[in-house]
Amino acid sequence: MHSEQGLGDTIQFCRYAKLVSDLGARVILEVQEPLMLVLASLDSVGQLVARGNALPPFDYHCPLLSLPLAFKTRLDNMPAASGYLSASAAKIAEWSSRLGKKTKPRVGIVWSGSAAHKNDRSRSCLLSELWKHLPPELEYISLQKEVRDADQETLKMHPEILNLGPAIKDFTDTAALCEVLDVVVSVDTSVVHLAGAMGKPVWVLLPFNPDWRWLLDRSDSPWYRSARLFRQSQSGDWDGVISKAGEALKGHTFP
Q: Which residues contact residue 226 at a Cβ distance below 8 angstroms, ignoring those fewer than 6 apart?
């Protein structure tokens, strides 16, 4: 089984390793180097290989995104929708200690993906657009690794946003943070898939014309039972969709 598209795609479809293993196969999973450590917790994988490294002998191969078709996946038989990845206990303890005692609900935020993504214009927003709709009574933690110049200025203006991006070394850190936060609010990035793959609450801010995996006209996702979807009602309307998420945060009952 081998990755073929983005990091989020690999996280979403690596769940099929168990189904392949259940057929009697020894699964060799080739993935992007940044995902090697966080996918070590994935069940039923005999060997993980970083893309570009030498492969051991194998009998069959299949790209990850062809597996849903191979297993005749439907909305009513989605595998592992409740979670299939986990964070390391050591990393969870490290980040829990770093964050200190919690005095209010903690919300992780991600507002943009890679600037090189072909659909970045549609899927990313500015931190200033996000921030103005977030209720002030919660604690906000930025999980954003790449911060653009305009967003750097917003971060400087709002020191109440705890910017952990520079301290996040890899996806194992992001996974541990997803574990210790109450909810992650994010545009459509790999962080969404990581939180969903862990079964952690994740609220996804979607453009008017969303990626195929999010389907249409629904606020939940059959891929991730812990996900809640907020959709633009018209193209480019970030104010509308973020305000809905902000109102939902105000009325949300946190554990």
A: 82, 83, 195, 196, 199, 200, 201, 202
